[in-house]
Design goal:
InterPro entries: CBASS_pafABC_assoc_protein, DeoR_HTH, HTH_11, PafC-like, Tscrpt_reg_HTH_DeoR_CS, WH-like_DNA-bd_sf, WH_DNA-bd_sf, WYL_dom. The chain has 11 helices and 11 strands. By secondary structure, it is of the alpha+beta class. The strands form 3 sheets. It has a 5-stranded antiparallel sheet. A 4-stranded antiparallel sheet has the order 9-10-8-11. Strands 1-2 form a two-stranded antiparallel sheet. A hairpin with a 2-residue loop joins strand 4 and strand 5. The termini are far apart.
Length: about 325
Amino acid sequence: MPIASSTATSGRLLSLLSLLQVRRDWPGELLARRLGVSERTVRRDVDRLRELGYPVQAVKGPDGGYRLEAGSQVPPLLFDEEQAVALAVALRLAVATGAGIEEAAARALTTVRQVLPARLRHRVDALAVSAAEGRGAQADTDVLLALSAAVRAGEEVRFDYRAPGRPEADRPPRRVQPHHLVVRAGRWYVVGWSPEREDWRVYRADRMTPRTPTGPRFPPREVPGGDVAAFLSARFKGSPEVDAWPCRGEVILDLPVAAVAPFAGDGVVEAAGAARTRLVSGAWSWAALAASLARFDAEVEVVGPVELREAFAELSRRAGRAAGLPGGT
């Protein structure tokens, strides 16, 4: 009988903890109804949770109640099956974020995986994620936390910036009003407003060293277009605002669609015959677009515009000079 009573109490404590984790405030009467016990039993169970290290606070008011607060230590947590799987998957993906937390994430994943039921463990193990090689330096975790705090507080950041080939030792610290901290292709970027240049700027977080203290607070702004992901994508394409390549052309390649599609990137591909493909693609310059299309190693028919045709002509002249041909001028 004592064993059965102890088992029932332990199960009830887990149920109580689960309820406290999913809602800010719980009236004592409502908790008692959900658990099928008296309010006196709820009070005793709350005391037991406190003894285990859970900071459960009493809530004053007409109904009274309880709230699970943040404490000075991390007590054991309780997750349902969906939350446990989501946590394990997130930890497995953490290695691809470039946030410098791979070792800690791996240890946390081992801890979570250890207590998962076999059926859930198989689901998590089925997700195989490999970190891409050569993605470059990662952002320091403390730097990311400092930048994130500045974004939330709306405070200007002063920082040193390490740009390749540019000596920064004698330069004064830069200033930016950070609005977004985003990750793209395994790198973290700060998207912010530069009050000195009165324009939006994008900085790589792994090259930033924030200085303390932070600067003054600033009013929030909206990035051009209202979508930070689209704005960042546009900047990487060399476009100031619109998420589109500044140079865009159309060609027909003497290759079947199956040979073009895997290498077309964000271009538009469609069949133009049994073994020919129409490709609409873009780049940051006409020379870059011509060179990109020439890599298909096939006959190219330029549909337009004329700037692309001229870029192919210049590419041909450069190739002739490189090959030492008499007509390569």
